[in-house]
Q: What sequence folds into this?
């Protein structure tokens, strides 16, 4: 017991270190130096909203989000930030000395899970935000606490309402009005104070939240697609779960907050493709990392693991790959579509897109070049083959075998399956539906061998009966 108390007091001291001595960072430090922020906070981290965004990465990740527009939300892959609120830009981890990435110096301190603000992570392409709400110091705050460490809560910890408002402010920008954000509230105890949770959600997000009532009454418990959510004016989904304590779910009256609908797992337990850590077509999974480090006490990278390559999770169609210290370089690892520098020319209604066999990335191609076509099964969307023959890019001819259609992979897993089917060949992919001013071509249904054979069989029977009747009449009346 005495050791436990000592460790807790040590924890509190380290968390408040800046109050016991000077803390002059003297400019940007750590990841904030690497990204080239124009201005940093007093403790050396990028001012919220100031992290430069790479336009190519941003466009490529937007492409990958849009490809999933007709997927049920339950199956959509969303880039996630573990403990997004616990970031140095907002003053958490004031005295951190652990330099990303691990392994760390054993004696360094790493309290914060993130370097940059929620706003900056959203700007980079994160769409899954985790918030830990704790009622302490007479307010509902965002704090990284265990079940019995309320003493470590600080009055300068961000308010829960401020975290919700920050997300809402980002969504209110004209360029972000149609973006979908999933908020994960990791509440570890039944704290009550429903009004301090539901109130800010109502005030700042309001009717944009896809509620449990929407799911159960409007959609009969079946998750709608991204397209349908947008049509309904819904672009926020909030769910809650506990990773400590009783394991109960605290939805604060089911007004806005869904019960956890995915399995939350430590990244250390993830097994790469094709095992994919137990991911199937049916289940929803979140793999989260942990970058925190307490000298001589605990090391998150060892105990939980850290995500350093989003692609390894995306090609397993993990819904929520949750990284720590999200930064522009980590976000680039999530790109599996466009090659860097592509599209090399403006995308027009007649642009032709190919997946090159040498690197399995997308390029704008010469439309008259002859290549195989990427063919996706109309029922089993994970099933890919190539067309029998090469040809120029076309939308007006049947280029795929029966039961297959000329298509484009909608997520990382299907992209991986196309890579395997192409076997190093460059192939045309049907990105046309996402191009400006696209119009669906009218194609006659392709008769399948089975139905075609059946039809011919019936026609032959009719012809034989007709011929027999004709011959009979000729004989009788000859």
A:
């Amino acid at each position: 017991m005495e050791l436990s108390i000592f460790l807790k007091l040590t924890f509190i001291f380290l968390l408040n270190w800046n109050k016991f001595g000077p803390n002059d960072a003297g400019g940007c430090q750590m990841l904030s130096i690497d990204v080239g922020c124009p201005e940093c906070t007093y403790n050396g981290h990028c001012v919220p909203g100031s992290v430069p965004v790479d336009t190519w990465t941003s466009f490529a990740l937007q492409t990958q989000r849009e490809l999933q527009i007709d997927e049920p939300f339950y199956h959509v892959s969303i880039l996630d930030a573990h403990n997004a609120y616990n970031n140095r830009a907002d003053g958490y981890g004031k005295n951190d000395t652990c330099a990303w990435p691990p392994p760390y110096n054993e004696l360094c301190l790493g309290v914060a899970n993130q370097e940059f603000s929620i706003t900056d992570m959203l700007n980079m392409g994160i769409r899954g935000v985790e918030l830990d709400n704790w009622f302490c110091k007479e307010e509902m705050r965002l704090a990284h606490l265990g079940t019995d460490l309320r003493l470590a809560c600080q009055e300068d910890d961000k308010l829960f309402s401020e975290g919700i408002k920050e997300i809402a402010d980002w969504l209110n920008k004209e360029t972000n009005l149609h973006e979908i954000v999933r908020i994960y509230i990791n509440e570890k105890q039944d704290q009550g104070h429903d009004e301090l949770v539901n109130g800010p959600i109502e005030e700042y997000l309001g009717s944009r939240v896809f509620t449990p009532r929407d799911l159960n009454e409007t959609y009969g418990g079946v998750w709608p697609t991204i397209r349908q959510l947008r049509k309904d004016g819904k672009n926020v989904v909030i769910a809650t779960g506990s990773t400590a304590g009783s394991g109960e779910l605290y939805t604060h009256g089911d007004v806005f907050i869904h019960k956890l609908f995915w399995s939350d797992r430590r990244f250390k337990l993830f097994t790469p493709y094709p095992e994919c850590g137990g991911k199937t077509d049916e289940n929803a999974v979140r793999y989260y990392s942990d970058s925190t480090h307490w000298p001589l006490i605990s090391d998150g990278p060892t105990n939980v693991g850290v995500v350093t390559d989003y692609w390894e999770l995306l090609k397993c169609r993990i819904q929520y790959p949750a990284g720590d210290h999200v930064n522009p370089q980590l976000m680039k690892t999530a790109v599996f579509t466009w090659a860097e520098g592509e599209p090399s020319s403006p995308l027009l209604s007649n642009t032709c897109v190919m997946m090159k066999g040498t690197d399995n990335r997308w390029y704008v191609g010469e439309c008259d070049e002859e290549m195989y076509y990427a063919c996706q099964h109309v029922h089993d969307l994970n099933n890919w083959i190539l067309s029998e023959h090469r040809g120029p890019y076309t939308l007006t001819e049947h280029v795929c075998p029966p039961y297959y259609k000329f298509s484009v992979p909608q997520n990382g897993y299907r992209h991986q399956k196309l890579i395997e089917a192409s076997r190093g060949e460059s192939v045309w992919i049907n990105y046309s539906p996402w191009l400006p001013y696209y119009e669906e071509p009218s194609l006659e249904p392709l008769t399948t061998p089975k139905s075609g054979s059946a039809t011919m069989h019936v026609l032959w029977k009719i012809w034989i009966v007709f011929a027999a009747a004709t011959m009979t009449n000729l004989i009788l009346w000859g």
Summary: The mean pLDDT is 88.
